Amino acid sequence: MQKSFSESYAAAGVDVTAGYKSVELIKDYVKKTNIPGVIGGIGGFGGMFELPLGDYKNPVLVSGTDGVGTKLKLAFLLDKHDTIGIDCVAMCVNDVACSGAKPLFFLDYIACGKNYPEKIAEIVKGVAEGCVLSGCALVGGETAEHPGLMPDEDYDLAGFTVGIGEKDKLVSGEHLKAGDALIAVASSGVHSNGFSLVRKVFDINEKTIAVKYDELGTTLGEELLTPTRIYVKPLLALMDSVRVNAISHITGGGFYENVPRMLNDNTLAVIQKDKCPKKPIFDLIAKTGNIPERDMFNTFNMGTGLIIAVDSDKADEAVSILNGAGEKAYVVGEIKDGEKGVEIV
Which whole number is the average pLDDT over 145-171? Predict the structure, then answer.
C-alpha cells in the first residue's frame, strides 16, 4: 500500500502532527497577549494588527529583530525552557523602546532538530510572558523542524517586533549635549550577551552549572539563566514626563560599543563605574577567567541594562520615575565635549 504524505514526511524526520499539537498547546499563552489592534488568531498565513493611526499625528514604525544566542546552551543543560522566550522578546522590544516607540506586536521563529510539542509550548510560554511584560501582542510565529541539520534536542530562537512612535518624540540623539546627566538602569544579570565567553570561563557543562556560589546565593546555572530585564513600560512612563535625549541598550559589546551609538559627534560620555549598579556574577566571571576590567566592560553589561541621557535638571525626576516603575536607577555620569566615545572612570 502506498504511504500517505504525512507518513512519508515522518519517515524523513518531520512530524507534521507534532506541529499541529504544538499550535494547540500554545493557544492559551498567545491569547494572554491580545491587546487592542489584534485581528484574528494564530494559524493564519500572516499575523494581522490594526495600527492606531488616530493616536498619532506623524506615526513612525520602528522594528527590531534579535535572538538569544548561546545562552540557549544553558536552557538545554538545565532542561528549562520556559524563560528563554522572555530573553528573545526583551532583546527586540528593548531596542524598539530605546528609540522612543511602543512595541505593538511580536513574532517568533523556532528552528528545532525535532519538534517536541511540550518543549515548544514551554518556549512559547516564555515568549508570551515577555510580550505581556512589554505590552505587545504575539500575533504569529513559525516552528521549523530541521532533521539532519541540527541535533534532535537542540533549537534556536529568534524574534521580530514592530513598534510605533510619534515622529517628533522619537529618541534620535539630536537633543544630546554637554552637561546632560547619564542615568544607569540596573540589569537582571548577564542578560543575553557574552555567553560564548561565559561558557568558556566556567567550562559550562552539567556539573559546573550545578555548583552553588555563596556570592550568587544560587547555582551558576540558575543565575545565568535569569531572564533579560524588559524595560519597555518604565521607559514609556519616563518619556511621558521627561524628555529623553538619548538611550543606549547595553547588549553585546558592553559599554564601549553600545554607549557611543547614542552619541553625536564631539560628545563624550563619562561614566563613574563606582556609581553604577553591580551584580556579583560579573566579579565572579572576571575572577574565574582572569579577565581585565576593560575587557569586561567591552563584553558585558556589568549590571547596567540601560544608559539614559537627560537634561541635568531633570535627572532626579527621571530617577524617581524609573524607581517608581520598579527599576533601580542611578545618576552615574555626564556628557562632555570631546572626541566621540566613552570613558569609564
Answer: 96
